Amino acid sequence: MGTTKVLLAEDETSLAHIIRESLEERDFKVILCPNGKVAFEQYQAHKPDIVVLDVMMPLMDGFEVAQKIRATDRQTPIIFLTAKSQSKDVVAGFELGANDYLKKPFSIEELIVRIQVQLSKEGVLNAKPISETEVFQFGEFIFNPRKNLIEQGINITQLTSRESEILKILCQNYQQVVKRPFILQTLWGNDSFFNARSLDVFITKLRKHLSADQSVQIINVRGIGYKLVY
């Protein structure tokens, strides 16, 4: 884990140094950026393993940085740090391709756990590997959860890691209702209102990815959960 690079963009100097020191104590290499403009430049220069972005920053805010990253990179995990409490701000972050968010004030230990979880999913930390041959075929699609890819003939869609995780759960339970609390507890660790809203955003995005084959549907079973049918 000593070569794991974390790009941290935080304009609150004292908080930024506390986070950096805590991460460096755990052998992460931290690329510290004071604003969004520098953060994107450093992202391009260093290609970090994970990006941690404060939402409210000078020159370029965290949302803008995430949007620029996601224009060419759907893989690198992005975690938002935000003081905003309105659900629309959290949802906006996930719509831009964020993998997780943390509301200020937060404990440094919680942030480190969130970072480790995302890196484990990306295979940067030791984690149980998904078989190279584990794929799901439904309708006109072939879904490779290890590579976060959906193929439909010559068309290939790159999913975010969170989209891939949700789709994998639905595929493993196809034609069965998967309860919302199960998805939320499995992927987010709790079923809070904000996480539930985030799940709704990801389901909407998955439906768009699968809309090319109308025989494939993610059905909302009101008050219970979701079911993949084809």
Description of the structure:
This protein is an alpha/beta fold and 230 residues long. It has 2 domains: 5-121, 3-Layer(aba) Sandwich (Rossmann fold), CATH 3.40.50.2300; 136-229, Orthogonal Bundle (Arc Repressor Mutant, subunit A), CATH 1.10.10. Helix content is 40%, strand content 22%. The protein has 8 helices and 12 strands. It has helices at residues 13-25, 36-46, 62-70, 87-95, 108-121, 161-172, 180-187, 193-209, and strands at residues 5-9, 29-33, 50-54, 78-82, 100-103, 136-138, 141-144, 149-152, 155-158, 178-179, 217-221, 225-229. It has a 5-stranded parallel β-sheet with strand order 2-1-3-4-5, with helices on both faces. A 4-stranded antiparallel β-sheet has the order 6-7-8-9, with helices on one face. Helix 2 packs parallel to helix 3, helix 4 runs parallel beside helix 8 and helix 6 (161-172) crosses helix 8 (193-209). It starts with a strand and ends with a strand. Mean pLDDT is 86; it is low at 126-132.
